[in-house]
Amino acid sequence: MILCKVIGSIVSTIKHDCYKSTKLMLVRPISPKEEIRKGTIVAVDTVGAGKGEIVLVASEGRSASELLEFKCRMPMRSVIIGIVDTISLKSGSAA
Question: Which of these, 30, 54, 62, 73, could form a disulfide with 84 (CB 3.0-4.6 Å)?
Answer without folding.
Answer: 54
